[in-house]
Amino acid sequence: MKNQLQFIDSIPFHVRSLAAYQPGKPISDLARELNLTHIIKLASNENPRGPSPKVQAALSAAIHELPRYPDGNAYALKAALAARYKRFALKPEHIIPGNGSNEVLEMLTQVFLGPNTSAVFSQYAFAVYPLAIQARGAEGIEVPAKAYGHDLAALLSAIRQDTRMVFIANPNNPTGTYFAAQDIEQFLDAVSPSIIVILDEAYNEYLSPEHRDDSLVWLARFPNLVICRTFSKAYGLASLRVGYGLMNEALAAIVNRVRQPFNVNSLAQVAAIAALDDQDYVSDSYSLNCAGMTQMLAGLQKIGLDTIPSRGNFVLLRVGDGASIYQQLLERGIIVRPVANYGLPEFLRITIGLPEENQHFLNVLEQILHR
Ligand SMILES: *Cc1c(COP(=O)(O)O)cnc(C)c1O
Questions:
Q1: What sign does the dihedral 250-255-261-266 (CA atoms) show?
Q2: Taking phi first (over 0 means left), then psi (-120 to 50 degrees means alpha), and beta for anything else, what does residue 207 get?
Q3: Which of left, alpha, beta for 260 (phi over 0: left; psi -120 to 50: alpha)?
């Protein structure tokens, strides 16, 4: 019989051999599979409170915009971000909005990477980096972690002649490890200005307020720096897919050429602007996370489990047989995140939830472990 899938062989090997990204299990999947009604999801670092009520009001008021294409230039969203970051002399021209900050990462790899180039990232860094690099036919250089975090000196030494980009997540997901400003600054001083440094700050709003803007002053000094942030985590808008990159104006002008014309939909733009405008809500979400982290760590310590110190809204927990505990939690209606795909089979990543969700998780975990 004629092989009808011959075209598969013509797909470049770097694409054929890609592994699909493994997202956290959706609540609806588990509900369907196990016929459960009460499910808690602590798997994808979402804000357990959801978005600000002001976002809901803004969305309702904007629903009539659905038949129209969105503002492809995201004028109002960029203006709102520029106003928020005015102190750092950031202008709309420095901002690239993305369909999630993930898309900003993708656009940057599209601009800089291709065959015969490489990009550097750390072991246990966010799983999207190696995938985005491989998808461009570039070589990913994975640098061994240090105490589960990035080894900045080793990242620097791993840079080769053909290296175009370095990815640093701060705090990192899934480990929660964090570098203080002076460490990142030292790295930026040391790295060649011909190398793009992507500083992924998806968890920025979970840092204490006095450190949230540490990195923004560097944009003027280091034109090779790109800072990525998102509305998916503390702002509670993961489903709408909106994030952004802050970068040098000349670089932004080029990235803008590979950006899809209408990459951020109109409801996402409206929601992001309303979310930015409600900083009290962000502040409350931050406090809730601090309290939840304290509650979670105290409970885990009581059960006798180790964690990696985390500066995000999640914690990496050493449970032993990660796959088995994950499964047992699922059967009891709790979704967490297995991290064997990161080479961390003994761990599970737990998102900090609402106080009652954290307590329920701790109770169920204690039952499973018979402690
Ligand atoms: C969640 C996350 C993102 C952001 O994803 P979005 O595409 O903005 O939803 C980026 N980087 C890291 C490290 C993350 O954990």
A1: negative
A2: beta
A3: beta
Q: Please state the atom number of ligand 1 nearest to the C-alpha of residue 44.
A: 1
Q: CB–CB of 96/255 below 8 Å?
A: yes
Question: pLDDT tens digits for 87-134?
Answer: 999 999 999 999 999 999 999 999 999 999 999 999 999 999 999 999
Inter-CA distances, 323 with 25, 266, 328, 345, Å:
14, 40, 9, 7
| Threshold 0.85, pTM exceeds | yes
* Length of the chain in terms of residues written: 371
Ligand 1, atom 15: nearest CA belongs to which residue? 173
Cα separations (Å) of 233 from 120, 150, 202, 209, 350?
A: 25, 22, 7, 16, 14
Match 């976002």 to its residue by tokens: 55
Best probe residue, ligand 1, of 22, 44, 45, 102 (max atoms within 8 Å of C-beta): 102
C-beta pairs of 281-286 under 8 Å, 24+ apart in sequence:
281/51, 281/52, 281/53, 281/54, 282/205, 282/234, 282/235, 283/209, 284/49, 285/47, 285/49, 285/205, 285/234, 285/236, 286/205, 286/206, 286/209, 286/234
Is 90 exceeded by the pLDDT of residue 3? no
- The span from the CA of 5 to the CA of 75, in Å, is 45
Strand pairing category for 95-98 and 243-246: antiparallel
Atom of ligand 1 nearest to the CA of 238: 9
- Nearest atom, ligand 1, residue 99 CA: 7
Cβ–Cβ < 8 Å for 196, 108 = yes
